[in-house]
């Protein structure tokens, strides 16, 4: 965080894809005067929209627009916005949605823990049980998903997929979203593994304006969310992940091997060679998983070193840009 003698800049980024009908209201709801903040600027990330989103953004008075030639997905748009905000000198970055789901007036509440130095990342909890247009099944899935993310990340958040969140400059520099699906789950797991201070505040939501583009169907949402969780967890805990798989495979191999030994010592082993073959296959797979875990663990150390280098490079580049701009 910068010293109080310097200008404190808050950037509100809005990833958008065909949000011409709701973007203007979203922008109007963002407060331009916030206690503790000297400058509030709005940045729209247009993710290859085919409607008038860019024109609406310009007419609404946004300060910056980052345009993509094609639709790359929410995760890519989020990361592009974060990078742009950092280059423009943001001290705090707030991410919100272009469909006006979140209330702009909750932004001061959202950034308060960062201003107080108590958190690096703040996630707005939507209190999903009280949202009328969420179906009972969706509410259960939200609770289950948030519980799984808490277990994987060791971060206590009641609403893991909320897109209304605030980041300090330091936290934004350390996050590097790789998922092609969404940034919400991955950023929490990364924050937990990188020991960033994460907290949450209760927020309200506006009436529904359109159907969710991420939650198109329950099976598809579960499949993509589970894939993201497994990928990120195996990236940060490869030895543990592959060890679990290896141990399970070896334990499964004990069942047919015990069966074969029972019949072998009973004098009937000749008719149960298939059990021995199955056991051997499971043992081989199990030991291969263990070896994969060791190799992946070594690779993960190189990845952590690469991430540290990336953070340092970002700081050097951004520091140079700020110095050049001030001159």
Task: Provide an overview of this structure.
This protein folds into two domains: 213 residues, Spore Coat Polysaccharide Biosynthesis Protein SpsA, Chain A; 70 residues. By secondary structure, it is an alpha/beta fold. α1 links the parallel β1 and β2. Strands 3-2-1-4-6-5-7 form a seven-stranded mixed sheet, sandwiched between helices. The model has no long low-confidence stretch (mean pLDDT 85). α5 runs parallel beside α7 and α5 runs parallel beside α8. It contains ten helices and seven strands. 53% of the residues lie in helices and 12% in strands. It starts with 8 loop residues before the first strand and ends with a helix.
Quick recap:
The protein is of the alpha/beta class and 327 residues long. It has two domains: 9-221, Spore Coat Polysaccharide Biosynthesis Protein SpsA, Chain A, CATH 3.90.550.10; 238-307.
What class would the helix/strand composition place it in? alpha/beta
The structural domain count equals 2
Strands of the widest sheet, in order across it, are 3-2-1-4-6-5-7
Mean pLDDT over all positions: 85
Count of individual helical segments: 10
H/E element sequence: EHEHEHEHEHEHHEHHH
Distance between the termini: 22 Å
CATH topology-level fold name of the largest domain: Spore Coat Polysaccharide Biosynthesis Protein SpsA, Chain A
The first-level CATH class name of the largest domain: Alpha Beta
Q: What is the name of the CATH architecture of the largest domain?
A: Alpha-Beta Complex
Form type: elongated
The CATH superfamily of the largest domain bears the name Spore Coat Polysaccharide Biosynthesis Protein SpsA, Chain A
Which residues sit in consecutive blocks of at least 5 with pLDDT less than 50? none
């Amino acid at each position: 965080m910068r010293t109080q003698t310097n200008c404190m800049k808050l950037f509100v980024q809005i990833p958008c894809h065909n949000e011409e009908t709701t973007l203007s209201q979203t922008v109007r709801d963002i407060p331009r005067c916030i206690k503790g903040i000297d400058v509030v600027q709005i940045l729209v990330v247009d993710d290859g929209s085919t409607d008038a989103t860019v024109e609406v953004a310009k007419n609404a008075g946004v300060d910056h627009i980052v345009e993509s030639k094609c639709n790359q997905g929410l995760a890519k748009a989020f990361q592009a916005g974060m990078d742009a905000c950092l280059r423009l000198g943001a001290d705090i970055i707030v991410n919100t949605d272009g469909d006006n789901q979140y209330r702009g007036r909750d932004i001061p509440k959202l950034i308060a823990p960062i201003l107080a130095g108590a958190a690096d990342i703040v996630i707005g909890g939507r209190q999903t049980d009280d949202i009328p247009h969420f179906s009972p099944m969706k509410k259960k899935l939200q609770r289950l998903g948030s519980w799984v993310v808490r277990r994987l990340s060791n971060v206590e958040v009641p609403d893991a997929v909320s897109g209304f969140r605030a980041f300090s400059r330091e936290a934004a520099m350390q996050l590097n979203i790789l998922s092609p699906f969404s940034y919400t789950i991955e950023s929490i797991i990364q924050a937990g593994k990188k020991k960033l201070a994460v907290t949450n505040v209760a927020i309200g939501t506006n009436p529904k304006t359109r159907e969710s583009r991420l939650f198109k169907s329950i099976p598809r949402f579960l499949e993509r969310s589970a894939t993201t969780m497994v990928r990120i967890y195996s990236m940060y805990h490869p030895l543990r992940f592959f060890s679990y798989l290896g141990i399970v495979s070896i334990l499964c191999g004990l069942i047919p091997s015990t069966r074969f030994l029972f019949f072998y010592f009973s004098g009937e082993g000749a008719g149960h060679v298939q059990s021995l073959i199955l056991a051997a296959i499971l043992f081989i797979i199990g030991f291969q998983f263990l070896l994969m875990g060791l190799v992946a663990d070594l690779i993960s150390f190189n990845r952590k070193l690469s991430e540290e280098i990336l953070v340092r490079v970002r700081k050097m580049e951004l520091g140079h840009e700020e110095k050049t701009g001030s001159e």
